[in-house]
Amino acid sequence: MPTITAKIQLYVNESQAESLRLTSKTYQKACNWLSERVVVSKNLNQRQLNNLYYKELRQRFGLKSQMAQSVMKTVIASYKSAQSNGHEWSLVHYKHPSYDVVEDLTGVRQATEKVHVKNRYVSVSWAFYQFRQFLEYKAQLYGHKVMVVSPKYTSQTCPKCGHVAKRNRNKKTHTFTCGNCSYQSNDDRIGAMNLY
């Protein structure tokens, strides 16, 4: 059976919006509660965490089955991501409000007009300003803030040791290798990590 992925937008009344906010806050609290147990046990095995904490997650936070499983997957993924990024083992905390960070793309159209003709449409057809406006509007609805930051050197700076060098990034292979500490990853991922 094929999988169909749909992107939908929900229009809710104030009562439904409050219910969504409450659900989000409960989910955040459940993630923090489980994170406090995972940081001590260092256990990232979903089956074992399920056996240890599933019932208590549901009872303590009033979560439905699928939501309790989602909390476990979120916490496990956060710790695994921190490990893969070379961070020391420490408590992952889920806090509010969250921030959406975007690059300041002022002048990007002029820079991309130097692109080869056959690739120009893809490069210059994005409506960056319009996207930013939509993002800021949606963020405001959910109590988030959009931070606009300079993208300068984000794909050339090592998030582990801070070493900045143009040769750290290989644009052709989209890879990043730090010339100082040898940390490696995808160059776009490095840029996103440095924006965060």
From TrEMBL:
Keywords: DNA-binding. It comes from the Bacteria. Residues 128-195 form the Cas12f1-like TNB domain. InterPro entries: Cas12f1-like_TNB, RNA-guided_DNA_endo/Transpos. One of its GO terms (molecular function) is DNA binding. NCBIfam families: IS200/IS605 family accessory protein TnpB-like domain (TIGR01766). This is Putative transposase DNA-binding domain protein. It comes from Metalysinibacillus saudimassiliensis.
